[in-house]
Design brief:
Blueprint (H helix, E strand, L loop, with lengths): L3 E3 L5 E3 L3 E2 L7 H11 L3 E3 L7 H11 L7 E6 L6 H15 L4 E6 L8 H13 L3 E7 L3 H9 L6 E5 L7 H9 L3 E5 L8 H14 L3 H11 L3 E2 L6 H9 L7 H9 L2
Parallel strand pairs: 3-4, 4-5, 5-6, 6-7, 7-8, 8-9, 9-10
Antiparallel strand pairs: 1-2
Helix pairs in contact: 1-2, 1-9, 3-4, 7-8, 7-10
Length: 257
């Protein structure tokens, strides 16, 4: 069921991921259940303090490392040129792995511009510790500057849901072969009009409004990373991949603002 999207000619990312922000002491059990449910893409970050839990859940699952795609992010205290490599080494130790699939700059920071951070990230990629590079919460201006470094940027992780629609950023990324990961994909279900339509579509497709919202994002080619500590919700979110909205219904949700 895990549809993938190409990051490069060699690297595919499972389109539906499992987020770990805010899971705290429930992270390991939640990630393990996600893996047992079928998720093969786990999103973490230094600031989430879930690296150790993700690594433990992966080992407990018994899945081969190469079967699970792991994304993590450099926090603001680790984006100067001299801090990137030590941070990545720490991440690898915490995760209990010898490589990271996708490494992102978590947030822009004035003290370390992308022109400084990205070359340091490229160095760890060339060292074989990271497979692909990207950014998070970057607007079009920062993306343009990032691309001018000549370093391949394959992903921008932004908040995107039925209420928060960063259409300009999405269009720029698509035009420049940058995939877009949508965090907080079902935290908001949009305007009153969008929620009314979601209810109607949920009844039509025999699904929940949250599943319809995820199906809409998947249909747009985004990479949603819902998170939950509740097994039933983890499973329901995963099943959203089975829903294919008609072009008419997808367009109606697009127009419901």
């Amino acid at each position: 069921m895990n549809k993938t999207i190409a990051l490069t000619n060699e690297i595919q990312i499972p389109q539906l991921g499992f987020g770990t922000s805010g899971l705290k002491e429930l992270a390991q059990a939640s990630v393990l259940h996600a893996l047992q449910t079928g998720y093969r893409h786990i999103d973490t970050a230094d600031i989430y303090e879930t690296h150790t839990a993700v690594g433990a859940a992966l080992r407990e699952s018994g899945l081969p490392r190469q079967d699970v795609f792991i994304t993590t992010k450099l926090w603001r205290h680790s984006v100067t040129a001299d801090k990137v490599a030590p941070a990545v080494d720490r991440f690898l130790n915490e995760l209990g792995t010898d490589y990271i699939d996708l490494l992102l700059i978590h947030w822009p920071r004035e003290e370390a511009e992308p022109e400084e951070t990205l070359p340091a990230m490229e160095a760890v990629r060339q060292a074989g510790k990271v497979r692909a590079l990207g950014v998070s919460n970057f607007d079009v201006s920062l993306l343009e500057r990032s691309l001018k470094t000549g370093i391949q940027i394959v992903n921008n992780q932004i908040k995107f849901n039925l209420e928060m629609r960063e259409d300009e950023i999405l269009a720029f990324c698509k035009a420049n072969n940058i995939t877009v990961t949508a965090y907080s994909p079902i935290r908001s279900l949009g305007s009153d009009a969008a929620q009314t339509l979601l209810g109607e579509l949920a009844a039509k497709y025999g699904a929940s409004p949250q599943q319809i919202a995820l199906a809409w994002l998947l249909g747009k080619g985004l990479i949603p990373i819902p998170r939950s500590t509740k097994p039933a919700n983890i499973e329901a979110n995963y099943q959203a991949q089975q829903i294919e909205l008609s072009a008419e219904d997808a367009a109606a949700l697009e127009a419901a603002r």
